[in-house]
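Handoff note, outgoing to incoming analyst
You'll be picking up this chain. Sequence as last confirmed:
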Amino acid sequence: MDQTRRPIFEALVEHAHAGRYDFHVPGHKHGRVLAQSDVSEWFEILKLDVTEITGMDDLHAPKGIIKNAEKLTAAYYNTIDTSFLVGGSTVGILAMILAHIDDDDVVLVQRDCHQSVLHALELARGVPVMLSPDIDRDTGLSLGISLETLEEGFAAFPKAKAVVLTNPSYEGVGQALDEHVHMAHQFGSFLFVDEAHGAHLKYGHRAIAASSLDAGADAVVQSAHKMLPAMTMASYLHINTERVNLQEVKRYLRMLQSSSPSYPLLASLDIARYFIANLPLEDMERVIRHWYNIGKELAQIEQLDILEVASSSYWQDPFKCIIAPRCSLSGIELKSELEKQGVDVEMATLGYIVLTFPLTVEGYDGESIVETFRSVLKNEQVVERSSTSRFPFAHRWVELAPFAKAEGDIEYVPISSAVGRLMREVITPYPPGIPLLLPGERVTEQHVEQLQRLEKQGARFQTGESWMESGVKVDCEC
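Most recent structure output, in case you need it:
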């Protein structure tokens, strides 16, 4: 297939320049309604925002440009089928789980999964069994699920219907999953992967690890907007083996995605695939070398540590830079100071920040970026780096953690008084949307300490902040 074509984008551009009278939705009429306003930048985007008129195909029954664009993407990623998603990786995760998990099916789930995995299991009425990830001793970073832990999971629950892993992590740490896939298939289980941060892994450069698609994972979701030049929410759902019920997946996508999807989002998926499929090797080499050198320069700043995983079993994405302050600033405070100087970061935790480097060097003055860090930290005294771990997980455990279906009284207690109590609600800091506490989990002193520090630092919580005012919801001890 011709990877230099962009079927959706090309059709949209041709239509935008055709000079047609559009008596159809959307209401901006190719931007004409706003043409004389002060939103000229927005006007350019609206020229490509159409609906399912003749020639523009239909995401839910594609036969033309969308089908061709999805086939080109499937060809590049070497999959059986690839669906374009306009609801983020979240909608792909929901669809692949709902299509295969029924009431009371046991699913082995990486504990530091995105909240959408747990939402999908709640909707499917499946039973999650949480697997603790390995935590790197030196950096405190979550690494992934070891083969030993997965084996323990199957030993305890040999009829588990599926395994859901996150690879790579938000911080870009991952591992080869070939043996994980083999083990899951031996037990007759699906292996699904949230590879939201790995749409670029198929490129095949020696500095970039292989995608879980190459390991044989059954279905893989990727957020094209995270690492490729796609618009926010634009994602891919790859069906990689015949074991997957493709028709059921498509049925759930029709339920979960809008019947009037955004064409700019669809076009951006088309363009993102085109970009990575046609990126010259010498350009990729130059970009990787540039950001590697920036990382080395940042490592020379004495108030910073660049966190690197030493384990040979795990790898790190060269486009993620994890920076831990060695001063009085927390990661959240360092993020705030950098923002004042015009530098926005991907994520901040109490212990570190994450930079997501682009697949280009254009518009990024490396010397200026490093100098900004130096300027922010110049008056900070060097101190021992504090703990960087985001998760108070014990080493290696397998734990049945069904959602709070139990009946009985609940009460609200201050978080400081919740140690030892069973949770009846979810608390999820954002980003990255990984629950810190789940229903059925017992609150520890480490949970309390982390939540109190997050609250003090002004962290955001997608599950709301009522627990700060009214207390956390726990099982009643009376």
